[in-house]
Structure formats: C-alpha cells, structure tokens
Amino acid sequence: MPTGKVKFFDDDKGFGFIQGDDDIEVFLHASALPAGETVQPGSRVEYGTVEGKRGLQAHGVSVLDAPQSIAKNRRRNPDDMAVIVEDLVTLLDSANNDLRRGHYPASSHARKIAAVLRKVADDFDA
User: Fold this and answer.
1) Cα–Cα distance for residue pair 104/118, rounded to 1 Å
2) Which residue of 27, 59, 84, 89 shows the fewest CB atoms closer than 10 Å?
C-alpha cells in the first residue's frame, strides 16, 4: 500500500489531499478514514487508491502517526480558551436549568451546545 503525508485536510468540509511518497497527490474524503479518526497536515498515512470522477481517491486509510508539534502549534491561546470555556459553562448552566424544570433545551440551543462541546474537545485534544 502507498504511504504519504496529509497535505491539507478540512474537518468541517470533510476532505483534503494526501501527498504520496511517490509525489502523486490523492483526494482524501473523511469517509476513507477509520471511524472517529481525523488527520491534520503532516500526518503520515497508508492508503489504497481508487479511480474517482476527478482522479485518484484514497480509501482504507490508516493513520501511521500524527505530528504532535503541529497540533500543539495550532492550539488557541489559553486566554482565548478561558473565555470559550466560560461561555460553555454558561450554556451548560442554562441547559441544566431547563432539565431541572423537567424538559430538554430547545433543539437550536442543544445544537449550539453540542457544537461548542465538540470544538472545545478538539481544542483540548490537540
């Protein structure tokens, strides 16, 4: 199986590109990654390829190693994270009050809480 480094990957859009060790660029869709796995630029991967509509696409991707230094360099400033965590606590307090009154938060509020929780978890996990 070929190996290479992730050249670019956008978690929000769910795709990116791998620069193969053979200098061939391959499209990488999030569905090609193992469940729950994500990659960052510089991550070493092993992958298979299939011919897609617009060229080679990766499939069956295995993450060999993730560059920790790159991930840590992309972290937010701790002061900025403190403000985000305070906002998250406020959102969770509001949800807690709704639950204590016997009902779940409105779906729009629940989606906002879930999105912020995911983002904070990603920032802490970097």
Assistant:
1) 19
2) 89
For residue 115, the SS3 value is: helix
Q: Which residues of 5-31 are buried (b: 16+ CB within 10 A; e: fewer)?
A: bbeebeeeeebbbbebeeeeebbbebe
Q: How far apart are CA 27 and CA 24, in angstroms?
A: 10
pLDDT in tens, 88-110: 999 999 999 999 999 999 999 99
- CB within 8 Å of 38: residues ≥ 6 apart: 9, 11, 30
Interval 12-26 mean pLDDT: 93
98's CB contacts (< 8 A; 6+ apart) are 104, 105, 109
Predicted pLDDT of residue 37: 81
With pLDDT > 90 as the criterion, what percentage of the chain qualifies? 56
